[in-house]
Every structure is written in C-alpha cells, then in structure tokens.
Amino acid sequence: MQIVDEKNGGSDAAATTDARYDPDFVRRTLRRVDWRLLPLLGLLYSIDVIDRTNLAMARTAGMNKDLGMDIGSRYSIITMIFFPPYVLFQVPGNIVLQYIGPRTFLTISVAGWGISQIGMAFVTSWRTLCFCRVLLAILEAGFFPALAFLITTWYKRHEVQKRLAIFYLLAIVLDGFSALLASAIAKLGGKAGMSGWRWVFLLEGLGTLCLCPIAWVFVPDFPDKNRFLTEDQTQLILDRVEEDRGDSLPDKLIAAKVLRHLRDPFLWMYGLMFNCVTMPGAAMAFFIPTILSGMGFSETMSLLLTTPPYIAAAISTFFFAWISDKTKKRAIWLGVQTLMSITGLMITGYATPHGARYLGLFLINMGASGSIPGIIAYNANNVTTHTKRAVSTGVIVAFGGVGGVFATTVYRQQDFPRYLNGLWATMGCQFLLLMLLAVNTLILNRRNRSARLGNVVLEETPGFLYTL
C-alpha cells in the first residue's frame, strides 16, 4: 500500500485520506482516472449532442424544401417531439445502468442512436422523421445522466465540477464545429442521388457506430469494479470517496428507496433549476443558425458563425468550474452566469447592429453552458448513496428535456427573425433560476447551522454538510 507512515506525515484519525497516502501516488492515480474517464466520455457526449442537434444543420442544408419543413409548425413539432420520450426514460435509464453497468449501458446507447441517425438519412416525409426522432430520444435518454452519474462516483465532492466541465466543454467545442462539419458534408449533395442533408445524417450516424467498439473496450465501470487501476489505486479512490461522503460502494437498489428519494423536494428544485439553464442552451442549439440567417447572413456564413460562441462558452465553462471548485461554492457562481445569460438575451432581442446581437449570442451561450455542469455538480455535492445519486441525476436531466420542449415551442416560426416571445420566455426562466438559487441557499445554510450544533444529521451521514 502506498501509505505514508506515521513518522513521515501521519496516519492518525484526524488525517485526511490524501494526507495518509503518498502525494505523488495520489496525483498519479487521479491523473490516470482523469485520462481514462474524461476524454472518452467527453467524445461520446459530444457525438450525442451533435446527433441530437444536427437537425438545425440539416434544415439549412435543404431538408426544409425536400420535406416541406417550412409549412406551418412542422419544424417545431419535429424538434419538440424528441423531448417527451427523452424525459420519460431518464430515471429508468439510470436504474438499468445500476444493473448492467456503465460499459454495457453506454455501448448499447451509442449503437442504438447511431442506427437511428442513419435511418433519418432515408426518410421521405416529415412524419417518418418524427418517428426517427422519437426512437433517437429513447436511445439517448439515459446517456447524459449516466455519464454525469459515473463521473461523480469517482471523485470527492469539490473535485466534481471541473471534471464535469472538462467532459462537457469538449462537447461544447465539438458541437460548435459541428456546423462546419455539416456544411462540408452537405457539399456531397447530389452524390449517389442523395441530398446534402441526407449525407449529414448518414455520415454522422456511421461515425457514431464506429465508436461502439471503443466504448465497449475503454468505458470504465464504477470504482469498485474497475479493471484499469491497480488494487492500491482502487483502494485510494474508494477511501477518498468514503471519507468525503460515505458512499464509495453502491447501496442496494430497491423500489422503496427510489420512491423515498423522489419525495425529496430538493431533488425537484434542482430539476427546475436545470430546466431553466437548458432552456437557452436548447434554443441556441436548434435556432442559432436560423437567428443568424435572420440577420441577413448567407446559409454558409450562418453555419460558420455558429462556432465562435461555442468556443467562448467552453472557455467560460471551465473558468467557472475551476473557481467554483476552488471556492467550494456553487450557487453564487451559477447566479453570475445566469446574469450573463439575461444580458445576452436582452442584447440579442433589442440591439439594432447585427454585431451587437451576435455578441448577445456569445453571452447567452457562455452563461447557459457553464450552468449545466454547475447544477449537476450542485446536486451531486448535496446527496449521498449511489441510489439517490442515480435517481436525482435522472430526474434533473429529465427536467432538461422539459426545457427543450419549452424552447422548441416558444421559438415560433411566426416570430422569425427576432423571436422576441422566445427570448422573453427564456429570460423568465433565468429570473426563476435566480429566485430558486436564493431560496435554496437560505434553506441549506440554515440546515448546515443546525447540523453543526448537533441537532440533525444531514443525508443520513454524520458530519455531512451541504455545499452552498
């Protein structure tokens, strides 16, 4: 065992786990876990996001004309119909994950939605496309909460947001370049008798399927069942998590526990917060090329200009994750990012110069993107046990699907090109988020004071305090 002896640094009861282990051993172990988890999970999630949101790119690449997408509310229906099954299958997905393990679950998900994506390349009507989108939603539903759940089982509470941000910002960057990729693929239009938008779905679906063997071989399981660390390294990870929150090993999953966790009002509050931050994120993902084209930019330029706001969002996301982990505070930094989103929405909605409105898109993306891993970390910091973590993560991400439904219904075709009704609805969500953060902080702070006085035991874990 790589443990420091008492003479060289202490192994008494008061010493932390990291102090009892050789510091270099701790760093090497965490670095090994980081490299195994974060790049691969970030790549898989980025493909998930690209396959989910490439509808906007396909629309500008000729799908509008071929399938009559500009008739009535067809485009809004096709985007919205994805989200009800996406919401419904979130919690069941995380429960299945507990039984079959992350590696099997994630590999099946990747294979399933890759096949669905390929099927979208051959649809001949917008109704058939709706069916493919529903199938895509079912297969993608448990993917993001599974990734977030898996990452939070490997680290201490105040190490989580940076890790969530790293894997998430990789998705942000690659999603930003997805417009460039779609633009390049669309130039194949006419080859093999297929339109450009069909090539987008086909090639991106085939690319997804190519990741299945990689996912099967390299996606790790939960810490106690991993196969890439040594026995000593595994024990270190388990010791760190156990000391931090007392749930290093999975607890038994039974229906009574799931129902008890679902009765926790804080779970629903975090879910409503997540709904608020995914609202602007979903709106930008589905409508940013359309908003840019409404500013007078060409089809190609609209696709190209989608990339810079995502790069800025990636930088902002990591900065706020770093400062949030460093200060061990969540709500205050979520509030700052929410104010950024509100500012961006006001500028995009009411500024006259196109350059200023484009700047607003930067602020919207920066505020919303960083808040997504922030709220997942906020929840993960304030729950214990694998079962509650699985249930809460599933419910929270399901609320993100509700935000997607909201976004696709309030950004109406008749409001093109400024979408003022949609922008105001999005701002309303941001003001609600600020109120929820304030209420949450007051209640959790009061409970922490009571726990310090010995009046209560929080989350059934002695010594546990909530992260504010």
TrEMBL record:
Residues 37-446 form the Major facilitator superfamily (MFS) profile domain. It is found in: Membrane. GO terms for molecular function: transmembrane transporter activity. Pfam families: MFS_1. Its main location: membrane. InterPro entries: MFS, MFS_dom, MFS_trans_sf. It is a multi-pass membrane protein. The chain crosses the membrane at residues 75-97, 104-123, 135-155, 167-186, 198-219, 267-291, 303-324, 331-352, 358-378, 390-411, 423-444. It comes from the Eukaryota. GO terms for cellular component: membrane. Keywords: Membrane, Transmembrane, Transmembrane helix, Transport. PANTHER family: MAJOR FACILITATOR SUPERFAMILY (MFS) PROFILE DOMAIN-CONTAINING PROTEIN (PTHR43791:SF3), PERMEASE-RELATED (PTHR43791). This is Predicted protein. It comes from Laccaria bicolor (strain S238N-H82 / ATCC MYA-4686). The lineage of its organism: Eukaryota, Fungi, Dikarya, Basidiomycota, Agaricomycotina.
